[in-house]
Each structure stands twice: as structure tokens, then as C-alpha cells.
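Run log, item B.
One chain of 121 residues. Sequence copied directly from the ordering sheet:
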Amino acid sequence: MKFQDLLAYKKSFDLAMKIFRLSKSFPKEEMYSLTDQIRRSSRSVSANISEAYRKRLYPKHFISKLTDSDAENPETQTWLEFSLHCKYISKETFNSLMSESYEVGKLINYMIQNPNKFGCK
């Protein structure tokens, strides 16, 4: 199995791409603040899942990287809140993206709670 086959990776990658496309419409003055931050945190969720999977032979490293991923996910949620309150995204878009983010969080936590199901010894 490749890390790209993990459901948490697939869903987090999809969410990061949605955020990327959406953030293209943010104002230019947000390029080095909100736009950059929301893209970085959303991408980091997927990146840390892939790193965790490569470390699965070492359970503590596996869980540590997943914990990093789990921390980046609510950071993304915070940036989504700023996007909503700055009126860069609609309430419907916000709710949809937050729902996806919550699902990603549940999948990451499942991996943390069940490392043996992902190749950890």
C-alpha cells in the first residue's frame, strides 16, 4: 500500500486542493498572510500523513507525525474562519470545508488510535 491510498491522505489532499483553488480569489493584499497561511497549513496535513506512513516501522514516530498533522488541521480551520469573517468565502463554502476538515480529523485520530492497522508493530 502507498500513502496515497490512505483515506485520510486522499481526503486531506482533496481539501487542500479545494482551498488552493478557492484562495486564488482572495485579495492580493492577503497573498503573504492569509492566502499563504491557509495553503501551508492545509498542505501540511497531507504532507505529515505521508511522512507518518513512511515512519510506520517506528510507532512513536508514526504517531508523532500524525499528531503534527492533527495540529495543522485545526490551524486550517482557523484560517477558514478568518476567510469567512473577512467575507472572502460564503457561509455555505465555509460549512462544507469545515465538514471535510472534521472528517479528516476523525480519520487522523483513527490512525493515531490504531497504529497496528497501518503497519506499526
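Observations after the first pass:
- The chain is about 75% helix and 0% strand.
- The two ends are 16 Å apart (CA to CA).
Flagged for discussion on Thursday.
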